[in-house]
Q: What sequence folds into this?
């Protein structure tokens, strides 16, 4: 029992040292002008930042060293991710690759694919896109129309994907496509292919948001050749793989820390002596944040133990995005300044929060779809 208590103390001490290390890195980046609190997020693309973060050991933390990883624990990775997100770091160049694409290749990719791609991700030099959503399919991934047919040495891919974050920068995309005709089981016959975005037949079209930002894209595949060793798992296993991938996508701290920078600036603006109304509004947000973080920590532990987290990850994503969207609404009510880009730090962060918050409950699955998944998990439908 004594050893166990001592191990716990040592682990907490190690985590505190790691948090301090990441905070020092964030402070260095702020001083250098590379981070603007509340005006960037984990989707903001900055290759140079990712390379610097990787050099500090903050990318591919849990992966084997043979692929450029650092063989650290999932808890250590969670600590680093929390601090980077809370610090407003521009993580878009490596975030998706580190969060889900790399682990998917590590678990289900051919050895040749692992050796080719994973070290590039670990070095911060590789961006991945998520090739799931399609035009006219909504949130029903089983209705996708992209298809790949057999050819000598691989596959020929045709189709379209939409809302693909940072596809204009991506070196690769994991594409969910149909590799055999749809039958009675609508989830059968789907596969995942790792597509080289520089391949002939790949076209990327920008989708400019109302905020004037180019992060989202439509991607067209026209007879794109994909080599056999770029198939993940076995042909027809795509649905199993994509649901495993979504568990990682929906359960991390990026699902409740997107507007943390604005919350931090709001607290600073209100000051150490808030009035009763300010204290209630901010206290409610902080309480919600704390509860959702505990849920995220629990999910991280389950994932590390190899346990299934589909339903609880879906609940966390829904709760987290609701909280993220509440932050700019509370800030708008409490702050004297008006939201405007180019204004003070808090005014610019408020403008960014208001403009981006609507997408939080869309990306990773709409709120309606998530509630349907939760109901099914509980046996209610």
A:
């Amino acid at each position: 029992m004594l050893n166990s208590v001592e191990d716990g103390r040592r682990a907490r001490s190690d985590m505190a040292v790691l948090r301090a290390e990441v905070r020092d890195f964030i402070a260095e980046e702020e001083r250098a002008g590379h981070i603007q609190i509340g005006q960037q997020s984990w989707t903001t693309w900055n290759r140079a930042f990712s390379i610097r973060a990787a050099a500090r050991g903050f990318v591919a933390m849990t992966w084997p060293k043979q692929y450029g990883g650092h063989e650290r624990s999932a808890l250590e990775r969670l600590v680093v991710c929390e601090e980077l997100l809370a610090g407003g770091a521009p993580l878009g160049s490596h975030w998706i690759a580190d969060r889900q694409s790399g682990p998917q290749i590590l678990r289900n990719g051919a050895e040749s694919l692992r050796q080719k791609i994973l070290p590039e991700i670990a070095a911060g030099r590789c961006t991945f896109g998520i090739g799931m959503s399609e035009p006219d399919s909504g949130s029903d991934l089983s209705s996708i129309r992209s298809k790949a047919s057999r050819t000598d040495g691989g596959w020929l891919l045709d189709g379209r994907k939409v809302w693909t974050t940072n596809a204009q920068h991506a070196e690769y995309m994991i594409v969910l496509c149909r590799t055999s005709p749809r039958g009675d089981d609508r989830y059968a016959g789907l596969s995942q292919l790792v597509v080289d975005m520089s391949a002939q037949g790949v076209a990327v079209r920008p989708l400019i948001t109302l905020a004037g930002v180019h992060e989202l894209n439509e991607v067209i595949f026209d007879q794109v050749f994909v080599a056999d060793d770029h198939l993940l798992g076995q042909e027809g296993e795509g649905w199993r793989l994509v649901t495993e991938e979504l568990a990682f996508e929906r359960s991390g701290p990026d699902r409740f820390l997107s507007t943390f920078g604005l919350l931090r600036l709001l607290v600073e603006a209100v000051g150490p002596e808030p009035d009763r109304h300010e204290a209630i509004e901010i206290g409610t947000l902080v309480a919600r944040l704390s509860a959702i973080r505990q849920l995220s920590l629990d999910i991280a532990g389950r994932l590390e133990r190899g346990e299934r987290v589909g339903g609880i990850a879906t609940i966390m994503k829904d709760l987290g995005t609701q909280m993220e969207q509440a932050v700019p609404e509370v800030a708008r009510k409490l702050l004297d300044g008006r939201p405007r880009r180019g204004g003070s730090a808090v005014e610019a962060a408020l403008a960014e929060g208001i403009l981006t918050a609507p997408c939080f409950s869309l990306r990773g699955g709409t709120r309606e779809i998530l509630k349907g998944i939760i109901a099914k998990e509980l046996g209610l439908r």
About this structure: The domain at 2-125 is CATH 1.10.540.10 (Butyryl-Coa Dehydrogenase, subunit A; domain 1).
